[in-house]
TrEMBL record:
Keyword Nucleotide-binding annotated: yes
Reactions this protein catalyses: ATP + H2O = ADP + phosphate + H(+)
Cellular component per GO, a single term: primosome complex
Keyword Nucleotide-binding annotated: yes
Boundaries of every Helicase ATP-binding domain copy: 159-325
Taxon lineage: Bacteria, Pseudomonadati, Pseudomonadota, Alphaproteobacteria, Rhodobacterales
A GO BP entry: double-strand break repair
PROSITE patterns per the UniProt record, alphabetical: HELICASE_ATP_BIND_1
Keywords, comma-separated and alphabetical: ATP-binding, DNA replication, DNA-binding, Helicase, Hydrolase, Isomerase, Metal-binding, Nucleotide-binding, Primosome, Zinc
Name used for this protein in its record: DNA 3'-5' helicase
InterPro entries: DEAD/DEAH_box_helicase_dom, Helicase_ATP-bd, Helicase_C-like, P-loop_NTPase, PriA, PriA_C, PriA_CRR
Entry-linked HAMAP family: PriA (MF_00983)
EC numbers: 5.6.2.4
Protein origin, superkingdom: Bacteria
Amino acid sequence: VWGPGAGDFDLARLRMVARLVDAPPLTPAMMEFLTRMGEYTLTPLPLMLRMATRAPDLDQPPSARRIIHRAGDPPARMTDARAAVLRVIDDHGGAGFAPGELAQMAGVSAGVVQGLVKAGTLAETLAPRDAPYPRLDPDLPGKPLAPDQAAAADSLRAAMRGAGYGTTLLRGVTGSGKTEVYLEAVAECLRQGRQALVLLPEIALSAEFLQRVEARFGARPGEWHSGITRTERRRLWTMAAQNHVGMIVGARSALFLPFADLGLIVVDEEHDSSYKQEDGVYYNARDMAVLRASIGGAQVVLASATPSVESWVNAATGKYRRLDLRARYGSAELPEMATIDLRQQEMEKGRWISPRLAAEIEARRARGEQSLLFLNRRGYAPVTTCRACGQQIGCDHCDARMVEHRFQNRLVCHQCGETKPIPETCPGCGTEGKMTPVGPGVERLAEEVAARFPDARASVLSSDLFHSARALKEAIAEIGAGETDIIIGTQLVAKGHNFPRLTLVGVIDADLGLQGADLRAAERSFQLMRQVAGRAGREGGEARGLALLQTYQPDHPVIRAILSGQDEEFWDAEAAGRQAAGMPPFGRLAGIVLSHPDQPVVEDYARALARDTAPLQAIGGELWGPAPAPIARIRARYRVRMLIRAPRQAPVQGAISQWLRGAPKMPTNLRLAVDIDPMSFL
């Protein structure tokens, strides 16, 4: 039941009530949030409601169930299978599991779990399906704060004590201690008996973060992401609705949990593109967090060392408050930044680590310190080409080249996931032994590291090399413990990880991402390189961190801005350029993506749709396109894009709805997606 009807229901359609569903009802604020978000994103309400009820068995009555939990010391006879079971429990903070669920997550038989029960290491009890979470104590002493941290924390506490909604941009250089500051806002929220939500851009960040929360509040918060169990998913949903969990840490989907009294939302690394969902319901969790807080009278903290231009402008115009942390915590200094001009380097064929960078790596190894080599390109090589005829191996279902993944011994399409074996002969000309990888990915870089530094311990951090959140967390923990000398990683390494022994960062290709027509290309490149460089020298000590950017364009404005440290000037210049062009946040954009298995069908319909744009013109909008999408075919569907630009205050959603209502009838199997405030234009 959503609300009162219009009184025109046909009573003849009434049916007897089969049973009552004893699930907590959604609050009026939550219902308003789902309604308004649906209106903003042009998403039907049933789809919005589905996003808010993503927990299993909500229609089942609460009951007791058998739960396995830790009870004693490890057994005298420890096997790999037994160790896997204990590792799963420890990784989830000692949470209880159903016996079959625990065995499945550990990849062992049920007999292994029962053996640990008989040994007394685990115990089996009957427990309520939905049990409250341990209380977090906001009055435990926190980590000592530096003066600027203390001032920022006081400001956030004062905002929490005030009445109503507000958003604060917490901008601090990498390593400045933003987390400790916003945890003080969480503490104030808990003192008021309200609930707090912290959104993180990457599941792998949650392990270290949960430890910091436990150290601050004496207990673990709830955790919501794709890696949690079905049992925990239902429990967390129910406890959030009943105000029996004070703090939840989660991915973007945690925004749709039915909090009974949500008082604070923190969006950590608010600039991160992973907060934007680009399938199903298109939305930006950062912006929707602000919407939800404004409806429920909550505070929002947007935390980042490299804020988005949108948040920067909102702070500059007074829509958001802004707090700055300008120095690293303790004795740590910001890393020294320098370029390596590849035009002046004598690079060996098939090598991507310059002599200068190699020498710095050796110096770090001699001192027992770690180095990070960053290349934002997954796999072994981005292109596989035939040296006889020049043909490049493409995906059969997409207009995209397949990427060699040598660790898997496969070619992989990064658009649809299709894989195929690496061919011995060219599929075009049939020549044998001429298929050659072109360009480097992180796997090829790892091969070079193994050849140049044979005694070094190297680890590759790339999302496609880890098939579970647990495996990724274990790899990050090993690096943090100093069990790796050289880290080779994609953008995964830029997302807030803290490696105490890391003092050198080498960006292998700083030019990657600088070019292109994307209006955010410069912003993203700046953010990514600044974040990666910020991994170096975070713990202080005698050695200051060093970040080296290998580039053929040392005079590029983005490279110069990174070296100069004039971040504010960069954001101001980006904002001025957007304003002059009428681009976000000074104008509105909406993307229209059409797709169909038959290319003429989708192209003909797109042209027909574009013929009458009167509703768009009425609000001062203009339609660009239609045109083939940059990736014109994905999963055997041909794609056409259109882009709508309109003034900042224009009612874009209403105009698009009116325009589409008057559109020709859609052909069978044609799909049309509307992306309000698009981040990607592929």
